[in-house]
Design the sequence.
């Protein structure tokens, strides 16, 4: 097991997170941030998610100076391997007394860590995996799915692209749980809207050369090439599609896009891409203020994963203040009972299947002429309200819901 060098402890030596004199007995809490620190998802999650969680701890303590909580934050790199992710989670829970694991991109790793969390009755706040199974057949009482999921992405981006004439699709799909699920969810939306799926090809995770996959997509004659991948894979596929002249003959649909991806691509390549997200730094005054603080520390603007890690950690601490318990189910139950509210995702709630509910947004990448600064990259197309963004509770197949019906 390899751990990341990004390990952060609460600054008790400076008195920042220690309970004040005369306050109640300190209750120690340890949060582990588990993600990709070294590969294709490191920009969208990685050290930035650790910064987000650190900021949540600091902000909570400033808002609650008499808090009994004494918080430590640690981190590790799961290397996009389910066995490594499971081993880190088991070590953290069994030996290192970690109470909650936050972030966990890569759906295969996320599903494995969710299972380990259930075994140890701890808390898993997933801020960056896409699989809708996390609130479906794989849901459990110790898990909350905090950011996006593939159902929301498919309904947001897929529906928008079909409505503008993109009614025939070919998918280039990351060959693991996340990609398979995203392709399936988007295919269903395309067909529901009267469109057709002409084919798909599976690409290994962290693929450097998409040329053969793009040739197959070109040969299909589909109007839309759906990219059911993320992070570095999405960036490479879009760059190479431009180099090979695939666009504008065929339209690309980036089904999971982050601000760091658009920044890496540059607007001359990324312009006019449609995509669905839960957060953008320039959405309102509160997101702008928070993102400025984040950028001062991380030297990059936050992705929605970074913002969601902040949001999840903040709400978790609010619940821990109430229950002060090592029983993960009790903590999650308290989190579900409380409305959510913060500066990045606004107001929301948590459904009984563990789905965190908040609006989603359909964005379009700006043209170079529209952008006024380095990170001025998105324009808002529309807000997708909660009742349209998320899979209906009755359709997920979550055992927690089935038991009550």
Sequence:
């Amino acid at each position: 097991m390899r751990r990341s060098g990004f390990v952060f402890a609460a600054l008790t030596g400076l008195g920042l997170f220690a309970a004040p004199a005369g306050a109640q007995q300190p209750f120690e809490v340890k949060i582990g941030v588990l993600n990709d620190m070294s590969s294709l998802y490191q920009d969208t999650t990685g050290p930035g998610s650790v910064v987000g969680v650190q900021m949540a701890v600091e902000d909570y303590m400033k808002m609650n100076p008499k808090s009994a909580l004494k918080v430590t934050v640690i981190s590790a790199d799961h290397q996009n391997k389910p066995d490594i992710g499971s081993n880190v989670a088991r070590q953290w829970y069994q030996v290192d007394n970690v109470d909650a694991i936050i972030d966990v991109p890569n759906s295969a790793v996320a599903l494995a860590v969710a299972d380990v969390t259930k075994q140890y009755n701890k808390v898993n706040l997933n801020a960056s995996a896409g699989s809708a199974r996390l609130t479906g057949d794989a849901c459990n009482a110790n898990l909350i799915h905090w950011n996006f999921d593939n159902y929301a992405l498919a309904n947001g981006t897929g529906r928008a692209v079909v409505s503008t004439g993109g009614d025939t699709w070919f998918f280039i799909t990351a060959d693991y749980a996340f990609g398979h699920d995203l392709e399936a969810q988007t295919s269903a939306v395309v067909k529901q809207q009267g469109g057709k799926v002409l084919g798909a090809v599976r690409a290994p995770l962290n693929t450097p050369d998409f040329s053969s996959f793009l040739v197959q997509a070109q040969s299909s004659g589909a109007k839309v090439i759906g990219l059911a991948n993320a992070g570095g894979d999405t960036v490479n596929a879009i760059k190479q599609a431009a180099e090979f002249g695939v666009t504008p003959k065929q339209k690309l649909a980036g089904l999971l896009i982050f601000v760091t991806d658009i920044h890496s691509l540059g607007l001359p390549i990324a312009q006019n891409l449609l995509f669905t997200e839960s957060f953008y730094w320039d959405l309102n005054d509160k997101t702008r203020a928070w993102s400025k603080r984040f950028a001062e520390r991380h030297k990059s603007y936050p992705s929605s994963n970074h913002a969601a890690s902040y949001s999840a950690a903040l709400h978790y601490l609010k619940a821990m203040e109430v229950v002060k318990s090592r029983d993960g189910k009790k903590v999650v139950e308290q989190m579900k009972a409380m409305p959510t509210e913060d500066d990045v995702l606004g107001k929301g709630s948590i459904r009984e299947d563990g789905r965190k509910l908040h609006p989603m947004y359909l964005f379009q990448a700006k043209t170079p002429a529209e952008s006024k600064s380095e990170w001025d990259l998105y324009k808002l197309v529309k807000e997708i309200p909660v009742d349209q963004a998320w899979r209906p509770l009755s359709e997920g197949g979550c055992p927690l819901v089935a038991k009550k019906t």
